Amino acid sequence: MLILQAERDALLKPLLAVTGIVERRHTLPILSNVLIEKKGGEVGFLATDLEIQITTASPEALPGEDFRLTTSAKKFADILRAMPAASTVTLEKDDGRLTLKAGKSRFNLQTLPADDFPLLSANGAATAAFRLAQKDLKRLLSQVQYAMAVQDIRYYLNGLLLQTDGDTVRLVSTDGHRLALASAKLDAALPRAEVILPRKTILELYKLLADSDDGIDIELLASQVRFSFGSTVIISKVVDGKFPDFNRVIPLDNDKIFLIDRVTLLQALQRAAILANEKFRGVRLVVAPGRMSILCTNSEQEEAEEELEIAYQGGALEIGFNINYLLDVLTNVPAETLQLAFGDANRSALFTIPDNPDFKYIVMPMRI
Amino acid sequence: MSRPAPRRIAHLDMDAFYASVELLRYPELRGLPVVIGGRDAAPRQLPDGRLRFARLRDYVGRGVVTTSTYEARALGVFSAMGMMKAAQLAPDAILLPADFDAYRHYSRLFKAAVAAFTPRIQDRGIDEIYIDLSDLPDESADIAARIKRAVREATGLSCSICVAPNKLLAKIGSELDKPDGLTLLTEADIPLRIWPLPVGKVNGIGPKASEKLAALGVHTVGELARTAPEVLQAHFGRSYAAWLAEVAQGIDERPLVVHSEPKSMSRETTFERDLHPRLDRPALSAAFTALCRRVADDLARKGYVGHTVGVKLRYDDFRTLTRDLTLPSPTADATEIRRAATECVRRVPLQRRLRLLGVRVSGLAPAASVAPAPLQGELPFDDAPGARPSNGLGQGGRSGALDEAAARR
């Protein structure tokens, strides 16, 4: 029975928006499937890994009967992707099998009952809700997401703290070695609320956000967060845990302070990094009045040295860092000039944007 | 060009090893069917000083037979059989608990005795080794007899040895004349002594492959040797088919692996009864911690650290799951292993009861080879509020408020 006829892209685009979270291997076979549901003219796509659920809809209304089915997300996406872009795809469903036809191609796929598909339902009233332009949220995320921990045993670091307070929304991430903080002012009066969003949710959200002025609605629920933008809705569980108090690690009395051109420093570090130790990635910064040297050596005793002029007249300092931690912040912060503030060789360094309290990056040194 | 002299590889297999060690301790049980297995079957001392041994018929539980004496095997009781089933076959058999410390002790003794002959030894487990005799001047039969004598003098136990051109034949051969056997096999013996054997006697042809072969009408090694390679390839993978064809001819070029670095160390336990993740949480948690400690002890004793910590869970429906986590730096520390293992368990569904729990550390490196790494400072989240951020480097490693918070969970 014919259930749907559509241009390839009308199916593929929304499908790819939801299938990023589908796990390759899962104990529950149906979770490798995507739920496709046609209601009225709208064809909806839904995928979940039980932690996150993404739904979206085809951009235009499509004719045909209503239906619900689930089939392998990966195979369905791979088939559509392999079709010529302009092809017209028809879907037929008979006895639990899904047949996809396009031109002279024909694919017969298994389905699993749509009623067995586990759905996350958003529950509880929102403790805080606000709206941002997608591009603003995207910019905020880009400034902090690189500092999230990866598979850390301190599970609550494998994510990002989202905090609301009055007119401020704050995002904080840390892997215990460095911490990035970015905030934005809203025209709103928000309650004090905070959640930890899982790493996977953040990476997926970042991929799906557009560089546009279109809004995204964010609702903090009891143990979930819901993001709604365009026809896409992401419901994510939040990480149950206590995020460390980031205020405690913001250094207040670092007195070796200078401004530096971001791109100049980034390029110098990128060159030096070629000879940084492959495993430990150490870099030594030697700060003296008027100049800063950047030194890298690798396990073969090869050496790189860069020298930059800086407007600085304070005391001398030699301090080591993981060079990746420096490259991360320099790559992701959209500012021409950065302010660097150091204490001593054992204390954290603070990176800020001059005259802008909305961004902070704190990085602990490495004893090399 | 002359052909190189054929290798002389011996396989030495201790006879009914665990059971024989127990008989050394309890000589009065000699000649009786004895079954090793279970946990609480230790003999009790009677008031008159005699020992009272548990009988298999009294066993209640779900243990499996670890091993049995030849007398018990004659009654049909073999390793890995459920003990309740074994009790039906041999209700009067004596039941003893396994004492792995003792078995490891005797294992070290017999291996040390063999090492006096040659260092060319491949460890194949607690009770068997391969020995490369190629470079020794003596006749095979003579040297094998001397090794058997040395093992008996060192341990009081008997073993079976086969000397053959390769590991495959030596392994098969040591079974042919058990117990206390001495077998010599050459290529010329293959048709008469190897081909009549069932294919399952070949190390590497398991029950599944045997079944598939039987379906093809192939029951013996000889029949396997006469099976066309195309037929084997059609039913087995290409490399397995090629291997089957080779072993049927007694061909095996594998060298002895004289020194092997362990790849992982693990400990696991099957619970007396299936434990519920929530209701039996204290018991599970204690068992979990104990496993981590034992793995940490193993690592420390053998001088290794490992990068990856994994867990293995078997549910009451026998489904088995594993999960692992790679740490930023290698460890042999029980607390760190426990913490990482907890993290792994977080990633598995815990709706069903658990039958088995295991902890494994892999990605091993000798502890001494791990150079002191540059020390990355930790953000001082644990400082008192308002205090001046202090030197996060001074604390050394990863101990901080963050970890304590994780440990509290």
TrEMBL record, chain A:
CDD domains per UniProt: beta_clamp
Listed GO biological process terms: DNA strand elongation involved in DNA replication
Domain DNA polymerase III beta sliding clamp central: 132-245
SMART domains: POL3Bc
Residue ranges annotated for the DNA polymerase III beta sliding clamp C-terminal domain, each copy included: 248-367
Highest rank taxon of the organism: Bacteria
GO molecular function list: 3'-5' exonuclease activity; DNA binding; DNA-directed DNA polymerase activity
GO cellular component annotations of the record: cytoplasm; DNA polymerase III complex
Domain DNA polymerase III beta sliding clamp N-terminal residues, every copy: 5-120
Location of this chain's protein in the cell: Cytoplasm
Keywords: Cytoplasm, DNA replication, DNA-binding, DNA-directed DNA polymerase, Nucleotidyltransferase, Transferase
Family of this protein: Belongs to the beta sliding clamp family.
Subunit structure comment from the entry: Forms a ring-shaped head-to-tail homodimer around DNA.
Function comment: Confers DNA tethering and processivity to DNA polymerases and other proteins. Acts as a clamp, forming a ring around DNA (a reaction catalyzed by the clamp-loading complex) which diffuses in an ATP-independent manner freely and bidirectionally along dsDNA. Initially characterized for its ability to contact the catalytic subunit of DNA polymerase III (Pol III), a complex, multichain enzyme responsible for most of the replicative synthesis in bacteria; Pol III exhibits 3'-5' exonuclease proofreading activity.
Protein name (Swiss-Prot/TrEMBL): Beta sliding clamp
